[in-house]
Amino acid sequence: MSRGSICCFITIAMMASFTPKFSLAKELPCLVVPQVVLTIGTPVVGVLNSVAVTQGDVVKEGDVLATLESSLEQAEVALATAKHEMEAEEKTAQMKAEFSLRKSARAKDLGQKSAMAQHEVDEAETEERLSQLAYTEVLENKRVAQLELERARAALQLRTVRSPIAGVVLERFLSPGELVKQAPIMKLARLDPLLVEVLAPVSWLGRVRPGMQGEVRLEWESTGLHQARVTVVNPVVNSVSGTFQVMLELPNPDNRIPAGLSCSVRFAGH
Questions:
Q1: Tens of pLDDT along 30-68?
Q2: Within a 10 A sphere around the Cβ of 95, how many other Cβ atoms?
Q3: How does pLDDT run across 117-137, given as a tens digit for each residue?
Q4: What is the CATH number of domain 24-68+169-267?
Q5: What is the rounded CA–CA span in Å between residue 178 and residue 147?
Q6: Which residue of 29, 40, 208, 255 has the lowest C-beta tally within 10 Å?
Q7: Can you tell me the distance from the alpha carbon of 32 to that of 259, in angstroms, rounded to the nearest whole number?
């Protein structure tokens, strides 16, 4: 081997020995954000009768947040309920229909035996048909009353605003007595779990994957790490910063960790 070849070999070997190995051990800056932020309003127009919560309150899914004035809707429900519960009229019509049916059958039998005049048989048959029509009309009226009751109840339910999520009230925009149109009443956030936003260098693309664990250190804590899990890896790279977005899910069962904190994250196991 010539001296030149030996020098070239040594140079390549030295370069290979100093080539840095890839590692995810570096801590990256991150930000803790709510998983969901919702603006709460109502599809109907009305005056706010009450607001049950204020900023900072913790709510469960289904909790009443606010109510609108609903005296008219309550009256419509009461009226529709009264119409729907007119069972005596239905039972009376049914009894008349059944009686006229039996009477018509007897009249036909007697008419065939020449024991009843034909006009009396015809009268019995006519009475049967009229009774059946009346009973059918009563049933149809009751069906319509049921639909009206369901509509009235639905309209009344819209006057009560309930929380669609378990979370925390971030802001309240309106107070009792104010008119609600299309303006939001309040804003809610789901804080369990939280999300951790990270901008990772493009060299890490393909190595950070959903399901990986991350160790999150909060800015307000000098010690202690929180375990989070990668849920989203955005494959689109920001050409200006040379980074891509990674989202981790951070459990927060007691809402102890507030959203908006700065943090640092290191991907565990690398």
A1: 999 999 999 999 988 889 999 999 999 999 999 999 998
A2: 12
A3: 666 656 666 766 777 777 777
A4: 2.40.30.170
A5: 32
A6: 29
A7: 5
